[in-house]
Specification:
about 475 residues; Alkaline Phosphatase, subunit A; 2 domains; two-stranded antiparallel ribbon; about 15% strand
Amino acid sequence: MSCSRIEHFTSRRDYLRCAGGGFGAVAFAAMTARPLTAATSTNPVAAKIPDRLGRAKNVIWLFMEGGPSHLDLFDRKPAVNELAGQSLPDSFPRPVTAMGEVGSPILACRRKWNRCGESGLWISDWLPHHHAIADELCVIHSCVSDGINHAGGVCQMNTGAVFGGRPSLGAWVAYGLGTENENLPAFVVMKDRSAMVVNGARAWGSGFMPSGYQGVLFETGAEPLRNLNNPKGVSAEQQQSRLEFISRLNRRHAVGRESNTELEARIRSYEVAAGMQSAAPEAIDLNQEPEHIRALYGLDRKETEVYGRQCLLARRLVERGVRFIQLYSGAGSRWDSHSNLETDHSRLCREVDRPIAGLITDLKQRGLLDETLVIWGGEFGRTPMSEKGTGRDHNPTGFTMWMAGGGVQGGRTIGATDELGLYAVEDRLHVHDIHATVLALLGLDHTELIYMHKGRPERVDVDEGHVFHGLVSG
């Protein structure tokens, strides 16, 4: 009986016998054409899923650790000053805050605001150099997170979960797109102080993925990478001979152990380290930059020299094919202003304002902004209610981030918070949505970029994110 003539089936058994072949074909097609997991490769940072949708090739994430106050920087709310000194109106649901001072009076915003650029974006006087780059910024006022404290907030903004153990966004990007320069890491992290970022290296870790995808921490100061130079008394020829000998030993040991991915990743890490000895010194040498570029980033001023150096180095790394670069401002949660908001934010804004504006300007004039996605933000924002009379508490229910370049349409705002800047009320974007959208801007479908962990398909968005297409320029 032919299975192509189903009208001749005489029993359920005949139907199931013939239909079973069709089910098998469906399963086979799914297995052979499945775009879920990245193809295996002996190189852990080789590209797995080709980018095909977005325009961005690289990401520079400007992470303000501690929670900058959106109410005093980008999200102008006249009602905050109109109700200053009063309690939160009864019409507002009582939020859950880190310190629990929900009944504290509303704290006035002391900033002066300006409409900037042709777009007329509102930016406060704490960021005067941002006024010149307003038309490049897409300001997202409706960001939402689940973390009410720094540990959970930083963890989720980086990994998608409030608890540690998952790969960071940078690791996912390195996994999906690989690197364009095998002599430099695909994922680089820098921080502006010797203090450690909350949660430590887990913020840029690879979680359950191989360690080859984790971020490489560059140190502060004039020497971001240690041990780049040969040991004293060892010539370049001697060092190269040693490296070649070690490589031969590694490859000999790997024969018959091809299935050991951890061994391959370890060998690869040594090869990258060796390559960095030749490529990194040139990449991190900022003395090659002319004085007017160094001044653009603020390297000629004490308060901006550190973050300016990191922003300039980020541009140089992007030029050399590094995929994901994360620059922490306020390492050790310095943006956390439960008190003395005016003093603390004033100092931190002076440190980052000129370098960030310089970075956007420099990327644009070099033709790199269209393919470099720049992201600004912290793990959450601040409440309109005061804390200790001079500060603001954590606010994960509605805060601001911005993106520029990389296919994002600038000079506009996305979403909105309520009249006091407490809750996101329009185009609410959860961290999972932000991660999915970043991958989309890089040309990666977050539903296809999957890593199999203990038999389970894992995604960066924990199966909850959606791409916000309103961010993408036409």
